[in-house]
Amino acid sequence: MGPVLAVVVILVLVRLVPASGPAIEISWRDTLPVAERQALERRLHLVNPTYREGTRWNYVLDDVSP
Q1: Residue 28, in any domain of the structure
Q2: Domain span at residue 64?
Q3: Which of 43, 65, 66, 38 lies closest to 57 in space, CA to CA?
Q4: What is the CB neighbour count within 10 angstroms for residue 11?
Q5: Residue 52: inside a domain, yes or no?
Q6: DSSP 8-state secondary structure symbol assigned to residue 45
Q7: Is residue 44 part of a domain?
Q8: Which of 10, 19, 40, 49 is deepest in the core (most CB within 10 A)?
Q9: What is the pLDDT along the chain (66 residues), one digit of tens a residue?
Q10: Rg for the chain (alpha carbons), in Å?
Q11: With b meaning 16 or more CB within 10 Å and e meaning fewer, what string describes 29-41?
Q12: Is residue 13 part of a domain?
């Protein structure tokens, strides 16, 4: 398998295999700008965001290390 094909296979697997960490719910401040919320999601390793209602979002915690 060539290196390009290996990278393609890895990228496909990353997209197909769901995150397996614990599911959590976060209520963000209603005045929090979208860009700031998205930056916090990345910093806190929150993946698979699902909007619930109001300011509530569900996530999978991708990194549980302290």
Answers
A1: yes
A2: 21-66
A3: 38
A4: 10
A5: yes
A6: T
A7: yes
A8: 19
A9: 565 555 555 555 445 555 678 999 999 999 999 999 999 999 999 999 999 999 999 999 998 887
A10: 15
A11: eeeeeeeebeeeb
A12: no
As beta bridge partners, residue 65 has: none
Query: Which H/E stretch holds residue 14?
Result: helix 3-16
What is the domain count for the chain? Answer: 1
Q: Is the dihedral of CA 8, 20, 18, 37 positive or negative?
A: negative
Query: Residue 47: which of 59, 34, 55, 58 has the closest Cα?
Result: 59
Question: Where do the DSSP E strands lie in 1-66?
Answer: 23-27, 46-53, 56-61
Q: What are phi and psi of 60, to 5 degrees?
A: -110, 130
